[in-house]
Amino acid sequence: MNAPLKTAPGHGAHLLVVDDDADLLRLLSMRLTANGYRVTAVGSAEAALARLSIELPRLVISDIRLPDRDGMSLFQEIRSSHPALPVILLTAHGTIPDAVEATTLGAYAYLTKPFDAKLLLERIAQALSLSAPAANAADSDQAWRAGLISRSQCMDELLAEARLVAASDASILIRGESGTGKELLANAIHRASRRAKAPFIAVNCGAIPEALLESELFGHVKGAYTGAIGSREGLVQAADGGTLFLDEIGDMPLLLQVKLLRVLQERVVRQLGSDVGRPVDVRILSATHRDLDAAMAEGQFREDLYYRLNVITLTLPPLSQRREDVTPMATQFLHSLAAKYGKTVHGFAPDALEALTTASWPGNVRQLYNVVEHVCALATAPLIPLSLVQRALRVPSLEVLSYTEAKQRFERNYLVQLLKLTDGNVADAARLAERNRTEFYRLLQKYDLDAATFRSGASLVAPERQE
């Protein structure tokens, strides 16, 4: 590799570097850190997968030859689980055919050892610019997703995809259970798009009576119907140049589905009672918690409209699948509500937080907000007690699964979840799993999980291996 370079700073982008050569790993980490990147360095594919389960990086740099499994296998698993995550492969001359094959399968690039540092930095910068085209600085990176509080990997992946598709004008269908935050995600996509300075108009198709929905969407002219004493612009026209978000699109009547399809096809809107069309430039985002495939089979939703709306699909996970997000969300909700109600409330008691984390949350984020508002309104002490949370939940909290039950599911995910919940405290994690510490350490070793990496402020660079 060449001498250190003076390049544009990496703005703190997180890179995962995988190589079993400890000297090269250390040198790469130093060089990338010096160029402004945040680096996680590991020496095996299993360790890389463990780190990916903790935090999703912006880019992966991996050697093709690794001790526990080859880099091609690692690449294929990354591609399967995280299709938007760019991967740069490092290869010796003997593995160039593998690297070429990997690029045909979706690897961003490959470099042969010994490689040129300037070329590596260029490839990294190019890959990052493609993976997040609207990103300019840390502040703007966060501003677009304001209101979407998360630290879970599944949300990180979803938001990375949302940031990518925001740059296009493609129609997006957002799926998810009620209360998962579909409108928040739609608004975030709008803020990350080129239409951010134009209007974002949200319409709940299930909340407006059918008789009024057509006029609300497309407007009407004077005399179009009894009571239409003047002309009125519809919400489609109001969103001209911006984004129209159609929530609960599955509840839209068939007659209006036909009219919406015509607007999408012709990019012209006609007010109710008028034969004159007006051109509109609007991006359509839609959302539903219904099964639209079943609705199409039953003749309740038009197939042609479905394919117009469903160019890209994003699916919001239920809160029960992102439990590590409960604590930061509940805490932020509590602080904002305490300010709203003029309460001196600083947080939750530990057992109250555990009850929130293990609750079933059928109502998802909306239910969590309501529960926090309930406890904040009734709080009489700086810390919210367990009893108040249990009262607000009105349902028994879920027990943390024992290891015997969880083993039938996905062993590694279970261990990762416990370490996240306990901030890397092995004693607490072992207690929750109903296993002794010695056995629990063996389980962590089996999956190459280091509890220290789950602790707040833990170093991201792997320690040197002892020969």
TrEMBL record:
<dbReference type="InterPro" id="IPR003593">
    <property type="entry name" value="AAA+_ATPase"/>
</dbReference>
<dbReference type="InterPro" id="IPR058031">
    <property type="entry name" value="AAA_lid_NorR"/>
</dbReference>
<keyword id="KW-0547">Nucleotide-binding</keyword>
<dbReference type="InterPro" id="IPR025944">
    <property type="entry name" value="Sigma_54_int_dom_CS"/>
</dbReference>
<keyword id="KW-0902">Two-component regulatory system</keyword>
<dbReference type="GO" id="GO:0005524">
    <property type="term" value="F:ATP binding"/>
</dbReference>
<dbReference type="InterPro" id="IPR011006">
    <property type="entry name" value="CheY-like_superfamily"/>
</dbReference>
<feature type="domain" description="Response regulatory">
    <location>
        <begin position="14"/>
        <end position="128"/>
    </location>
</feature>
<dbReference type="InterPro" id="IPR009057">
    <property type="entry name" value="Homeodomain-like_sf"/>
</dbReference>
<keyword id="KW-0067">ATP-binding</keyword>
<dbReference type="InterPro" id="IPR025943">
    <property type="entry name" value="Sigma_54_int_dom_ATP-bd_2"/>
</dbReference>
<dbReference type="InterPro" id="IPR027417">
    <property type="entry name" value="P-loop_NTPase"/>
</dbReference>
<dbReference type="Pfam" id="PF00072">
    <property type="entry name" value="Response_reg"/>
</dbReference>
<dbReference type="Pfam" id="PF25601">
    <property type="entry name" value="AAA_lid_14"/>
</dbReference>
<dbReference type="InterPro" id="IPR025662">
    <property type="entry name" value="Sigma_54_int_dom_ATP-bd_1"/>
</dbReference>
<dbReference type="InterPro" id="IPR002078">
    <property type="entry name" value="Sigma_54_int"/>
</dbReference>
<feature type="domain" description="Sigma-54 factor interaction">
    <location>
        <begin position="148"/>
        <end position="377"/>
    </location>
</feature>
<dbReference type="GO" id="GO:0000160">
    <property type="term" value="P:phosphorelay signal transduction system"/>
</dbReference>
<keyword id="KW-0804">Transcription</keyword>
<dbReference type="GO" id="GO:0006355">
    <property type="term" value="P:regulation of DNA-templated transcription"/>
</dbReference>
<dbReference type="GO" id="GO:0003677">
    <property type="term" value="F:DNA binding"/>
</dbReference>
<keyword id="KW-0805">Transcription regulation</keyword>
<feature type="modified residue" description="4-aspartylphosphate">
    <location>
        <position position="63"/>
    </location>
</feature>
<dbReference type="Pfam" id="PF00158">
    <property type="entry name" value="Sigma54_activat"/>
</dbReference>
<protein>
    <submittedName>
        <fullName>Transcriptional regulatory protein QseF</fullName>
    </submittedName>
</protein>
<keyword id="KW-0597">Phosphoprotein</keyword>
<keyword id="KW-0238">DNA-binding</keyword>
<dbReference type="InterPro" id="IPR001789">
    <property type="entry name" value="Sig_transdc_resp-reg_receiver"/>
</dbReference>
